Amino acid sequence: MNDMRILERAVSQTDIKISARKVQVYYGEKHALKDVDVDIQDKTVTAFIGPSGCGKSTFLRCLNRMNDTIDSCRVEGRIALDGEDIYDKRVDPVQLRARVGMVFQKPNPFPKSIYDNVAYGPRIHGLARNRTELDEIVEKSLRGAALWNEVKDRLAEPGTGLSGGQQQRLCIARAVATQPEVLLMDEPCSALDPIATSQVEDLIDQLRSEFSVVIVTHSMQQAARVSQKTAFFHLGNLVEFGNTDDIFTRPHDPRTESYISGRIG
Ligand SMILES: Nc1ncnc2c1ncn2[C@@H]1O[C@H](COP(=O)(O)OP(=O)(O)OP(=O)(O)O)[C@@H](O)[C@H]1O
């Protein structure tokens, strides 16, 4: 192998942030995800698409062990973050979820002030040595979530008093505050109006300069707008994974073709 090929290979391997191999998920007897293999690249937006019930959210929740909270759920196979098995018994799920943050479908701010919503994670993970550093993290996170200008004069007010779109950006700021390496978003715009959706989509595009974003979406237009990679799931199988442009214009699998042309789902 020549030097250039060796270099290209090294670069492409370090680009992989999360690697999943032969992942199976069961809810009791139900086999919800079958043999999923996928590599999530660093500093890239990856969209998970597919009909309702195909397993998108289930797989997303595997990536930060959120399924641990569901008693009937069993995960098999290997999922590695930077090459390390996240299901290893030495891994603390709370620490893992600071590295692999999550934003949910419905904005779920804590019943605390705007400031404390964002400061919560940095406080429990000891990311600030004093109040000045904490203030800096809160401001940077709120700026990063494109919310600072709207809330800087009302930081002590409850987060739950913000509009739906602002609450979702607050939840993004809360996730960003722990300096995650990956941000998982489960239909983050489904409760938002078109203007708030567009703000969150712009934000996703900015966030990928800092870390990987994985987004579950029912909107193919949204997947096409925000992602560089797309994974199409169907009946618990990962049918096709590739560049978003290719998935939407030249899908290989007839099931992907049927879904994107609106014949299934
Ligand atoms: N907590 C649970 N207990 C039992 N079965 C579950 C649970 N969560 C999901 N399932 C089942 O697992 C399968 C995959 O569900 P999942 O929510 O991952 O699909 P999805 O593609 O995200 O669907 P949607 O687009 O409707 O949100 C479905 O058959 C669902 O009924």
From TrEMBL:
PANTHER family referenced in this protein's UniProt entry, alphabetically: ABC TRANSPORTER I FAMILY MEMBER 17
SUPFAM superfamilies according to UniProt: P-loop containing nucleoside triphosphate hydrolases
Subcellular location: Cell inner membrane
The keyword Cell membrane belongs to this UniProt entry's keyword annotation: yes
UniProt topology in membrane: Peripheral membrane protein
Recorded GO CC terms: plasma membrane
Predominant location: membrane
UniProt KW keywords: ATP-binding, Cell membrane, Membrane, Nucleotide-binding, Phosphate transport, Translocase, Transport
Protein name: Phosphate ABC transporter ATP-binding protein
Occurrences of domain ABC transporter (ranges): 18-260
Domain of life of the native organism: Bacteria
Recorded GO MF terms: ATP binding; ATP hydrolysis activity; phosphate transmembrane transporter activity
Entry's Gene Ontology BP terms: phosphate ion transmembrane transport
Keyword field contains Repeat: no
Job of this protein: Part of the ABC transporter complex PstSACB involved in phosphate import. Responsible for energy coupling to the transport system.
Source organism phylogeny: Bacteria, Pseudomonadati, Pseudomonadota, Alphaproteobacteria, Rhodobacterales
